[in-house]
Amino acid sequence: MVDRLRAGYPVSRSLLILASLLVVVILFGGYGYYHVEAVRINEDKYLELAAIGELKSVQIQQWRQERLADVRRPTRSPFFRRSMAVWQRSGFSPTLRTEWQERLQSERSAGFDDALIVTPAAKILLSAVEHPDPISPATQAAITTALVSRDAVLSDFYICPQGRVHIDAIAPVLDAHDKPLAVLIQRSSADTFLFPLVQSWPIPSKTAESLLVQRFDNEVLLLNGLRHRRGTALSIRFPLTRTDLPAVQAVQGKRGLFRGHDYRGVEVLADLRPINDSPWYLVAKVDADELLAEARYRAIIAALVTLCLLVLAALSLGYGHRYQQTGLFKELYQIERRQREEGEEFRTILYSIGDAVITTDNAGIVQRMNQVAEQLTGWLEVEARGMPLSLVFCIINESTRAIVENPVEVVLREGRVVGLANHTLLIARDGRERPIDDSGAPVRDEDGVLRGVVLVFRDVSFQKQAERELQANTDRLHSVFRVAPIGIGVVLDRVFLEVNPKFCEMTGYAEHELLGQNTRVLYQSEEEFVCVGQEQAQQLRVKGAFSTETVWLRRDGSVMDVFLATTPLDLSDPAKGLTFAAVEFTELKQAREDRATMEAQLQQAQKMEAVGRLAGGVAHDFNNMLNVILGYAELARQKLDPDNPVSEYLKEISHAGQRSSDLTRQLLAFARKQTIMPKILDLNDTIAGLLKMLMRLIGEDISLHWSPTAAPVLVTMDPAQIDQILANLVVNARDAVVGVGLITIETAIANLDAAYCDRHVGYIPGEYAVLVVSDTGCGMSREIIDHLFEPFFTTKELGKGTGLGLATVYGIVKQNNGFINVYSEPGCGTTVRIYLPRASSPATAQQECLVPEKELPRGTETILLVEDEASLLAVTVEMLEDLGYRVLACEGPGRALQVAEEGTVVIDLLVSDVVMPEMSGRDLYERLEVYFPNLACLYMSGYTADVIAHHGVLHEGIHFLQKPFSSRDLAIKVREALTL
Ligand code: ADP
Ligand code: MG
Question: What's the whole-model pTM score?
Fold first, then answer.
């Protein structure tokens, strides 16, 4: 384009050709116009000539007819004829002559030069003028013709003696017998009318004239005077051989248009036509020059117009060319400017581009390179320019290290864009290697010819590193995904796209079963599915994350509690898809619930423990006091006569003391401070033995049903505690039943597994003997059950209930490592299950030492009595001495040791309190044993201290006396200790 613009020439040449063509067209057009105009003008002029010729010939013809008619008219009048006949017969009378004279005068006055009457022999008889011209030969010839034809004729033109051209109209005057009498001649001057008529030209013309000609033998005579020569009428003749003359042609019979030469030898255009009924011919002619003058004039106009057009064409062509040239230069300027700008832009782009760029020509020679390319190759642009690219840009395969074909060569060979080659290393000038991505593209000119190649490449070290890190990251994440102990997956449009093994394990589905599956499959109901979906959509919109606790369905139809958390794949469009993590917490939930229960139970147990300690403490000191009261009351009674009324009072005091003692015992039992002597026993037997007593307790309205299990139910326990348990439970059952009802006592064996025990504080897995007491009574509300075992909790009216029944049962069961389960609902009765650890071997029934009431065992042995409570010490001394023993009383262990050290007496038995300020009863015994190896021992206590018993359970061989005690209790226990 630029080249074409630069050349400019072809444009001018075509313009010139165009101009030439235009000139030719204009010239031809001009000439054509001229030619057509000339022909047209010729034709027009001829038509004009013909029209004028026609007009004149008609006028001449008319003139002739008029002349003939004029001459004929009088000759044919009877008057004329008669007068003539008279004149013939009788000659001219002067009158007649005068008459005729007058007549001819009147004829002449009609416009003639003269009027004559001549004889048939052409002798003038009369003339209107006095001296008439003689009869010309032409007239004579015409008279002859008229006489022959008996009609009027016109003579040829003749010149009169005065030199004027005359023509005579001649008519014979005939008598009755058609015999000519005379001849009437009307003489006209041709110059007066005819010749002017002939010569006149109706339109302005310089050369046009008409000629009246007549043939005379071999000549043609021009009748009228010529326009161009004076006095020529009847004087010019031409031989008929002059055929170039229109007059010759006319007389020879040619009609219409003729082009020839006139008498002057000038070229003329003539119209030739005869005058009818006459020997004359009319030649109307005009000079060819005049004729062509107009055509020439038009030709000049046409030529001028053509010239103008040519000039105009040339001007416009020139202007057009100039305009075109200007346009072209402008365009060229614009293009060059654009090219410069583009070049500048290209340079700017090239040097500011982030990738390395090298351009080469079509031979692979470096043309340009940017700074990035300089850095990567180690070549400067100035150095590299003109070098073959393979030298500057040297690449090898990353793994094989083989030289890789340069992309530029490929582009040059194949002429197409060559894409990025992977795993390519660029070796820089300094030998440094860098991984690169490269591509080459051909550069073509407008005609599609390959002009060079652009090579673009970039250092991908960072990218490779990033890719490696990304891959490692992905791998790590994937492994986390695979081994994560929580269910993870990706969901797209509510359909599983990816799930990890844990998720499959949780849900029980195989991976292929889940992929493509709708998440609805996990939900129990459509409502739940929709509800979770809506909540999720809302939370994702607001917070960008969602978490909830929900219930999912496993493949096998079982349900699980899950904690579900989701987050959208694309935060900007949460609806697109999401990742989720799900943790099953079915067990955790259970454990949580269990833990809550356990905590409540623990709290309850701790409360019971605290209350128990309180109760135990109170009972301990209270027992000592009771012991004193009971001891002295008993001693006093023994010393009194039974009939003494005071003895009765003392009995009441003892009675009240005893009841108080029962209460403290119950408290101690609850506080598990009751001292017991467990042994292996069969619950079935023990309960069977108690049935009678229980029947008495419940009365007649309520029936008692006893349903022991077939196998023996062995437990290791103090049988008195079984009494306590059953009595309390049955009394409660009785109180719950209004009117008629049923109480059932059952035994069973239960095997509690670890799972069960895990969820219950204090429960230990193992085999248990179960004692069940159920009733059809009023049942209990939750609140009552919650406080059931607390001491002094009762719903019964004052005086009826103490609130210690179930507290005692609780204490006993706990002391025996068992536990209680109460099931009750208001109005539905109550079932109390007591679990006691099952004993393995059958019991060897231990014979109880039954002592008859009246006979208290007595003795004389020496007893060392140690009691820190002085009043109790005093009463006990008295009791023992009453029983015959020798008593050494000490208020504390220190004193007792002193007595032993003194060694004055042998001590047989140590009766000691267990808990004392200085040392425990047990320590004291051990110290005394050194002095008296056979020393027996009996401990007394308000409760069982750990020093002698483990959780209140005494070991074999230890003797123990529960405070408060009676003389009887003391007597039996002392005897027992001394005996065994
Ligand atoms: P008390 O019998 O002196 O009230 P307990 O400790 O024996 O004390 O019982 C406490 C409370 O437990 C009772 O007052 C009663 O409300 C309720 N109770 C115990 N056993 C039953 C039972 N079998 N049916 C209904 N309520 C019972
Ligand atoms: Mg009770």
Answer: 0.39
